[in-house]
């Protein structure tokens, strides 16, 4: 019996062009392409040990047992590995998150990317990076992109084989940086999974959103080629606001913003009118992420820390793709 153990680390990514809506719930095929930046500050480390003695998978996250809901979701993901490998072994799976969970800081992106990497390696599946990206996608859409470092594109594709991510710029050497403003790190009220389902089913603007993303993808890739941080930030901010307009136009309507998110957005506008180039994006939670050139970091931090406190501001640089440990 071989060792059947592996450990992997994946970093979270923040979408600059958002994924918001599934064409296929089971395979997690999105309606649109999307584009993200992998961050070095937030990551998940997961180890997987298959064990003949086990009669079910045993999961822990940050050394705590997982909820019934997560147990099912994770065991279902492990079934994909068992099917591909054509064996019936269960595993001990231990995950440590260096990310506030479910606070719109994209913990599911690093979690499922790390699990896909560790589990497939422990099962000796020998997947290519593309195959790994497709596998991670089955756990959570945004995890598709966390296989790669830097700026990454998820091609929506039309079936399981054609929907995967690829890197656009893995080095990102032009000063792009992000500050995460930790406004509220408790569990979000509307999961992205159910939020996007509601939007697809009820927002009259959903067809327009698909057009928005098509144009934004082209414009964003051109801005990246030019290494133009202002243009990148501008497109990302507009794209994020249009995504959040979908939640406001759903039935029932909802929003991930809270009062502090609006304060942060106002402050970014103020900084901008004072000549500091910075932009914001928000995901399925109230935390605001600021996009800027690293030369402006100190001015932005000084302004934001008056309102939010220095300890609630996390500076992050572009981060790497999947890493195997040990
Ligand atoms: C707003 O990947 O968490 O962060 O596929 O249902 O697991 P599921 O959703 P998830 O949604 C991410 C939404 C987003 C935008 C993005 O990351 O592209």
From TrEMBL:
**Boundaries of every Diphosphomevalonate decarboxylase-like N-terminal domain copy:** 10-165
Chain ranges of the Mvd1 C-terminal domain? 181-311
**Native species of this protein?**
Paucilactobacillus wasatchensis
Q: Gene name, please?
A: mvaD
Q: Which InterPro entries match?
A: GHMP_kinase_C_sf (IPR036554), Mev_decarb (IPR005935), Mev_diP_decarb (IPR029765), MVD-like_N (IPR053859), Mvd1_C (IPR041431), Ribosomal_Su5_D2-typ_SF (IPR020568), Ribsml_uS5_D2-typ_fold_subgr (IPR014721)
Q: Which GO terms describe its cellular component?
A: cytosol
Q: Which family does it belong to?
A: Belongs to the diphosphomevalonate decarboxylase family.
Q: Name one Pfam family in it.
A: MDD_C
The organism sits in which domain of life? Bacteria
Q: Name one GO biological process term.
A: isopentenyl diphosphate biosynthetic process, mevalonate pathway
The keyword Amino-acid biosynthesis is assigned to this record? no
Q: What is this protein called?
A: diphosphomevalonate decarboxylase
Which Gene3D superfamilies does the UniProt record give? 3.30.230.10, GHMP kinase, C-terminal domain
Q: Which NCBIfam families match?
A: mevDPdecarb (TIGR01240)
Question: One GO molecular function term?
Answer: diphosphomevalonate decarboxylase activity
């Amino acid at each position: 019996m071989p060792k059947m153990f592996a450990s992997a680390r994946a970093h979270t990514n923040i979408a600059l062009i958002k994924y918001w809506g599934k064409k296929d719930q089971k395979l997690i095929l999105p309606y649109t392409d999307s584009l993200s930046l992998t961050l070095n500050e937030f990551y998940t480390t997961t180890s997987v040990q298959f064990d003949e003695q086990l009669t079910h998978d045993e999961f822990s996250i940050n050394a705590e047992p997982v909820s019934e809901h997560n147990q099912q979701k994770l065991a279902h993901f492990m079934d994909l590995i068992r099917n591909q490998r054509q064996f019936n072994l269960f595993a001990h799976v231990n995950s440590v998150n260096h990310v506030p969970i479910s606070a719109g800081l994209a913990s599911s992106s690093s979690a499922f990317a790390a699990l896909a990497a560790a589990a497939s390696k422990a099962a000796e599946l020998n997947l290519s990076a593309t195959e790994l990206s497709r596998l991670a996608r089955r756990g959570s859409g945004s995890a598709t992109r966390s296989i790669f470092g830097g700026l990454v594109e998820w091609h929506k594709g039309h079936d399981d084989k054609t929907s995967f991510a690829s890197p656009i710029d893995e080095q990102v050497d032009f000063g792009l940086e992000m500050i995460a403003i930790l406004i509220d790190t408790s569990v979000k009220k509307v999961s992205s999974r159910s939020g996007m389902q509601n939007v697809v089913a009820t927002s009259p603007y959903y067809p327009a959103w698909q057009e928005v993303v098509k144009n934004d993808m082209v414009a964003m890739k051109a801005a990246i080629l030019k290494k133009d941080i202002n243009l990148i930030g501008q497109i990302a901010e507009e794209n994020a606001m249009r995504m959040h307009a979908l939640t406001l136009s759903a039935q029932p309507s909802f929003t991930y913003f809270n009062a502090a998110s609006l304060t942060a957005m106002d402050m970014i506008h103020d900084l901008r009118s004072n000549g500091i180039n910075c932009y914001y994006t928000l995901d399925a939670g109230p935390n605001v992420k600021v996009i800027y050139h690293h030369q402006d970091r100190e001015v932005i931090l000084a302004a934001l820390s008056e309102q939010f406190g220095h300890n609630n501001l996390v500076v992050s640089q572009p981060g790497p793709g999947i890493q195997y440990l040990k």
